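Dear support,

I submitted the protein below through the web form. The confirmation email said the job was done, but the results page showed an empty box. After a refresh the structure appeared. I'm attaching both so you can tell me whether what I see now is the final result or a partial one.
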Amino acid sequence: MKQNLYSLVLFVSLMIMISNFAMAQSGGVTVEPNTCIRIESGTKVNITDGDLVLKSTSSGDASLIDFGTASSPAMNYSGTNSGEAKVQRYLTEGQWHLIAPPISDAVSGMFLNDFLQWFQTSDGTWHDIIPTNISLTPMQGYGLWSVESAPSTEVFEGTTNTGDHTFSFVNSGDRWNLVGNPFPSDLDWDEVTIPTNLEGTIYLFDPTSGSNGEYKIYLEGGSSNTTTQYIPSGQGFFVRASTSGGGTLTFTNSERTHNTTQSFYKNEFKADYPWMNLTVSGNDLTSQTGIRFMEEASDGFDRLLDCWKVLSSSPELPQIYTRIGNEPIALNSLPSIAGHEEIPMSFAVEVPGTYTIGVKDLENFDEDQPIFLKDKKENFYQNLRKYPEYTFSYKAGDDPDRFVILFFNPNGVEDYTNDLGSVNIFAYDKTVCVVLDDDIAGETVCDVFNVMGQKLLTRNVFAGRNEMVCPFEMGTYIVRVHAANKMITEKVFLK
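What the results page shows now:
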């Protein structure tokens, strides 16, 4: 087939399958986002006097799945004007990204106006790549800072990769290795053979989560994944070697796929063992941690069952995690509830304020299994089965290890709740009103906090209507009323 007068454009949501013949294309081929060209074994496609352009936008990427080999690819770029592949990579502006070359002949000079770095596993440091003639190795990941003031598209120009690619990972330093998808298509991590000395989780950096980004995780069979098994073209990501040693990671043609759902991840995990995910929310951001109980797990870190928590440097991003030893954990797999009735949980953020811990998933626990959250700072217990959300105030200097998940009923008390019965909390002008039931029992206290978590006022309140004048600046405040083991929190606006 020939197109001599104009470029061939392949549009969205198509799978173009080419097999059993030779195709000559003059004027080039442009493949639109979310479209895939699949070239079967034994087929040659010659791009003459033009380029193969694989487009990338915020909506997705174009894909090329070439069943040739590294020494004899199915795509051939030749002709009077020396055609080549142009594999685009969409990037958000003013942020770090992890990238990897989907072509065999990439060089650092492709990124003249950006900052390009390589990662050194032995000491966990990043190093600038200054010369413009440094070869960028397929399957090696790199850090790239886009200096643009608006989203931009970087272009890898050269010969697209196909066939087997290998990466030698090491367990020096903290054992983190920055690898990358070497193909001009998505890579399905579930199809990859995990070497004996490599842990099973991938860590993909999302620069749009918080001001400094956040690492998303995927583990095959993991109950707390925050991204999918599909690694986009041109994407770098971290893996971690085990303490036993290094080895070789191999990616093959059979592990490639065309996927259009990377940006729409939803956890639809199913299992027959008890598992739960908890979230923490605040500042319009949310992160999570997971706990599960499965017979094959141990108390230590299991390379194919547990996931590390890579803490974000975004100061406004609230984060929760458990620990194995002193290491933060995003997914903690334990052998049984027995012997693990108390699991400490840490909270990290740099911005004082009000935050909410919630139960996102709670599956396969016995109906009579107690599950409580303990706030050590407030000496407060909450039944997460009855009340799955807990709102608290944080200020600078608070102990990050203030929470504990309890799989028993503390002190045998039947009703630790956040329910004070009929309580009405509201404000007018500079006055906070708390209206309590007539049958309220015991000492009841009202605290008023600013949004930074600082306590500004404390008063005892009683049955009936209680009014407290608050001579504070106009704005939003947090009112907390608590009695014995019961508590309720509301936001109010003071004029």
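Response: this is the final, complete result; the empty box was a page-load delay. The chain has no helices and 44 strands.
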